[in-house]
Design goal:
By secondary structure, this protein is an alpha+beta fold. It has helices at 14-22, 24-31, 37-44, 49-64, 85-93, 132-136, 138-149, 154-173, 223-226, and strands at residues 2-3, 75-79, 102-104, 111-116, 121-127, 180-183, 198-200, 207-209, 214-216, 219-221. 39% of the residues lie in helices and 17% in strands. Strands 1, 2, 3, 4, 5 and 6 form a six-stranded mixed beta sheet that branches. The protein starts with a strand and ends in a 7-residue tail after the last helix.
Length: 233
């Protein structure tokens, strides 16, 4: 576990704090929910090994960092993939793009960094390199290839779902160290999300956040209307 330096945001004025206090009760209701794997399944839409892995990662990180489900931005998750496990992180840890505490750096790795702003501590969890499904149930991998290719019989499809359920149960119960490697976190604590003003695109007329706007021929435009510029690099 790593202790990281934090960007210090401006102190909010009393009006902002008063508004925050007024909605605290409703937020507490929200943060009391979505705590089980079944909650993650309901959020994601189905149960699968990837979701179970994300659930174990979030659950382990929250315990290691002594963090609760984030009602604001106190718990930050930096995810390095866009797979099913990210939904479990959102459901269990309360990290989301809209709140600014879910940062996606999709480089195709099943790795997750969790940061507790209150304590300044962080951990990075990386899935073990050994093929997981083959290790837990070699037959599932072969059945999956048949199912995804459309060549599986009804009996094989039924058997696949039954055995995959067994794999998921193992992921949820085996020692955490058999799933992930805990490494030193490499990220600084990100700046808290900013509330940006909006400007009107001179071409399409739609509003765009100031920090996402571009200038084209001396006029403020959105990214699509600005077009791409590349020299082949």
């Amino acid at each position: 576990m790593t202790r990281l330096p934090e960007h210090r945001p401006a102190v909010p004025d009393e009006t902002v704090l008063r508004s925050y206090r007024q909605v605290t009760n409703s937020r507490e209701i929200m943060t009391r929910s979505l705590t089980t794997y079944e909650d993650a399944v309901a959020f994601h839409g189905h149960s699968c090994p990837g979701l179970a892995l994300g659930y174990r990662a979030a659950d382990y990180a929250m315990k290691r960092l002594n963090a609760k489900r984030s009602e604001d931005e106190d718990l930050v998750a930096i995810v390095e993939n866009d797979a099913c496990g990210v939904d479990a992180v959102q459901a269990l840890a309360g990290c989301s793009v809209g709140k600014g505490n879910l940062i996606m750096r999709d480089i195709g790795k099943h790795a997750y960094t969790f940061i507790n702003r209150k304590t300044g501590t962080a951990i990075r969890l990386v899935q073990r390199p050994e093929p997981l499904t083959e290790r837990l149930d070699p037959e599932v991998a072969a059945l999956r290839r048949k199912v995804t290719s459309g060549k599986a019989t009804p009996a094989e499809i039924k058997k696949f779902h039954e055995r995959q359920a067994g794999v998921i149960e193992k992921i949820l119960t085996i020692p955490f160290g058999e799933l992930f490697i805990e490494k030193e976190a490499r990220s600084e604590i990100p700046e808290r999300a900013r509330i940006s003003g909006s400007v009107q695109c001179a071409v399409c007329g739609e509003m765009v956040a100031e920090h996402r706007a571009r200038v084209k021929n001396g006029k403020i435009v959105c990214i699509p209307c600005a077009g791409e510029y590349s020299r082949g690099w």
